[in-house]
């Protein structure tokens, strides 16, 4: 408890508070822009933290992640264009509400659900991360390797068009992670004689390229449609249309509670991501409703269910990051780079080596939840205007931010070249149905996977029968086989495109 | 659509074969005796990609679920953007060496705005001024870092 109290005293410094508020505000603003998700926002903002100490830098980035997770509901509700995929279920009921002149009500429901989901998951992080970390110190590379195999397989099955494509993306990410000097022998691999690749492919330019620049390219290719959508926002006259009534709270509260629990569960499992959480929560709210016919036509509980789960995933995905050093989501994967940039190595040792910083991060996350509520309430109307900014004016500004970020983090022109190469790859991935998220998760866990694989082969003395001495690893490998069977079976039953159902 | 799936599967197969037969042997030493080879993980991933590429291609050919006549995944405007936007960034990088970050930054912002269809002269002045001014203020004045 002492580190958290110390953390609260650390974040009460005006500069730290300012960076938290700035992070949440920027995140909310960026999240409201269609296509610019929280991962993109954090990737772009990392270079802005270079000159900051660790706590305000990390608090700023987490603030952006939280703010953009909540902000993505704005464009989903007002334009029917989700700021990111995880807000897609929000649009199902939020947009009909906006068309009925209840945009204010829908935006407030989304905001309150976001704040409550986020705060609940932050408390879960505080309570669960350290116990899991204590246990994590006792597990061997064999178990970690099995967990990683399961995570990559499970993520591959959930987040791509097909299990095969999801696995291909993750495998290519693993391959990209092998570029550079090999861990054990120090021999160069796949560097083509270029010394700049000896340290491996830089993560931040890669992430900026695959997420942000690829999205800019796709938006540039669809600019007419995106601009056209920025003009159909209705505004109601009844004051109740702009606020949450008692009846609305009665409908939304159970959905928020369930959504938060689902978001925490999904966030803890490495790699599932916010989309899984928000869709599961929306589906559960609909299945438990006495009036399922209201869903899709402006059910306030649909908005609440989706947003609470979406926002709960962000802090919950930091639980495996803090406890095991495994990123629970692409945002956590990008945050690893930011953490290491500021001298913090996520994982179980973090609690022993930097308890005060961990306490500060927890305190900053709780403060960010409060900042999210205040910023959302104060500036919701103003932020909503951002979605009216035409894409032709958004893309140039975001593009130069991306170039600056890649230049600074990637060591000059090389970083920009890496960014462009992976932007092209990102566009190909998106258009051909291969998951960019899987690739990035594969890349980020690649080094840990290779290390634990090598250690496991040595620990098991190259005899698979020795796995019997590692029951936890066996359970995860069995779960991997089950996941492959389940996803392959599911794929053979479902049509290629949902609209064909 | 079926052709795209088949081609992407076959492209993966070709990529994996090239990696396994030429690139990995040429670019990764076999390692030291007594240690696991540095080629281990790259070879595992490429064998798996080879198998999955064949699976994707076979699924596309055999499965009736994939519509044969669905339009391809790329629109003309997207292909154009895929070429022009990276080309603009590379051009700005080249100009950076010749004329410095201010001119290169302005070229990037104005070029991207023009590519996106912005024709308002005021916007074409304010966009680079605002973006570069804000970037300069934040990076050089507030954070004390530099670019270039």
From TrEMBL, chain A:
Q: Which intervals hold domain DUF112?
A: 17-440
Asked whether the keyword Signal is assigned, the reply is no
Q: Which domain of life is it from?
A: Bacteria
**Does the record bear 4Fe-4S in its keywords?**
no
Q: Where are the transmembrane segments?
A: 12-33, 39-62, 109-129, 135-156, 201-218, 318-341, 361-379, 391-408, 420-446, 467-487
Q: Which Pfam families match?
A: TctA
Q: What is this protein called?
A: Putative tricarboxylic transport membrane protein
TrEMBL record, chain B:
Keyword tags? Membrane, Transmembrane, Transmembrane helix
The keyword Transmembrane helix is annotated on this UniProt entry:
yes
Query: Which residues span the membrane?
Result: 7-24, 44-62, 74-92, 122-143
Q: Domain of life here?
A: Bacteria
- What is the protein name given in its UniProt record? Tripartite tricarboxylate transporter TctB family protein
Source organism per UniProt: Gemmobacter megaterium
